[in-house]
């Protein structure tokens, strides 16, 4: 099993450009999420999904879009990149037991994004 | 507003020492408290987790101590090794919100040989 795979690993964008960060998992997990990691801020939830066709916002959703057409894939789109979106982005997946159960999150290796 | 406050920001110990990382929270709805370990260039990985019905949990050299009344929990690493050098994140979530985690700001641990 590859686990959670993120591409690309590194990306430099110009302000105003758009791009999609890819995330795929092969563990048949229903729950997938995107976090951004900034120095001194920890990891903050951007968007999450509890299954195909279902997405919701996290703590810091502005400037990002997501969709979930399959169980395996959960891409994150930056609509118009801004320097404030310079960060390391992590995708995570976990089993979904409903809102009464917490399960282990498996993280990808991250995408380091720089917006100039 | 940081839902989970973590300290210290960085920690340096000698091999064999016992580093302690502390976290505090305010939301009494939180009922699941994992610790994640992250090596440079890698994603975080679950290290150990605790629920508030117990005050301590041990897995190998790693121990979580939990104080429900003080709303605090801590990670202790016994007989620390250079290979433990990493960034450690505490986190919290509520069963009401499922897998939505709130992370601390992280502690960079260096274990000197």
Explain the layout of strands and helices.
The complex is a heterodimer of chains A (116) and B (113).
Chain A: E1 4-7, E2 10-13, E3 19-25, E4 31-38, E5 42-51, E6 54-57, E7 64-66, E8 76-78, E9 87-94, E10 106-107, E11 111-115
Parallel strand pairs in A: 2-11
Antiparallel strand pairs in A: 1-3, 3-8, 4-5, 4-9, 5-6, 7-8, 9-10, 9-11
Chain B: E1 4-7, E2 10-14, E3 20-25, E4 33-38, E5 45-50, E6 56-59, E7 62-67, E8 72-77, E9 86-92, E10 102-103, E11 107-112
Parallel strand pairs in B: 2-11
Antiparallel strand pairs in B: 1-3, 3-8, 4-5, 4-9, 6-7, 7-8, 9-10, 9-11
Brief account:
The complex is a heterodimer of chains A (116) and B (113). Chain A is built from no helices and eleven strands.
How would you explain this protein's 3D organization?
The complex is a heterodimer of chains A (116) and B (113). Chain A has 116 residues and is an all-beta fold. Helix content of chain A is 0%, strand content 50%. In chain A, the strands form two sheets. In chain A, strands 2, 4, 5, 6, 9, 10 and 11 form a seven-stranded mixed sheet that branches. In chain A, a hairpin with a 2-residue loop joins strand 5 (42-51) and strand 6 (54-57). By secondary structure, chain B is mostly beta strands. Chain B has no helices and eleven strands. Chain B has strands spanning 4-7, 10-14, 20-25, 33-38, 45-50, 56-59, 62-67, 72-77, 86-92, 102-103, 107-112. Chain B is globular and about 45 Å long. The A-B interface holds A 4, 31, 33, 35, 40-45, 48, 50, 58, 90, 92, 94, 96-110 and B 2, 4, 6, 9, 31-32, 34, 41-46, 49, 89, 93, 95-101, 103-106.
């Amino acid at each position: 099993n590859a686990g959670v795979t993120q591409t690309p690993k590194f990306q430099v964008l110009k302000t105003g450009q758009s791009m999609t960060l890819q995330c795929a998992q092969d563990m048949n997990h229903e729950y997938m999420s995107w976090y951004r990691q900034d120095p001194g801020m920890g990891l903050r939830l951007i968007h999450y999904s509890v299954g195909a066709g279902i997405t919701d916002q996290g703590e810091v959703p502005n400037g990002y879009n997501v969709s979930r057409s399959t169980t395996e894939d959960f891409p994150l789109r930056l609509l118009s990149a801004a320097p404030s979106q310079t960060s390391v982005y992590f995708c995570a997946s976990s089993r979904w037991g409903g809102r009464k159960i917490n399960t282990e999150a498996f993280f990808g290796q991250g995408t380091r994004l720089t917006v100039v | 507003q940081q839902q989970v406050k973590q300290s210290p920001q960085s920690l340096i110990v000698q091999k064999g020492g016992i580093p302690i990382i502390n976290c505090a929270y305010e939301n009494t709805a939180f009922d699941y408290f994992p610790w994640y370990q992250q090596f440079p260039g890698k994603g975080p990985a679950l290290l150990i987790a605790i629920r508030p019905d117990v005050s301590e949990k041990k897995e190998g050299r790693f121990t979580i101590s939990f104080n429900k009344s003080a709303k605090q929990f801590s990670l202790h690493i016994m007989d620390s090794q250079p290979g433990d050098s990493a960034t450690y994140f505490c986190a919290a979530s509520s069963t009401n919100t499922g897998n939505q985690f709130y992370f601390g700001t992280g502690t960079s641990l260096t274990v000197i040989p």
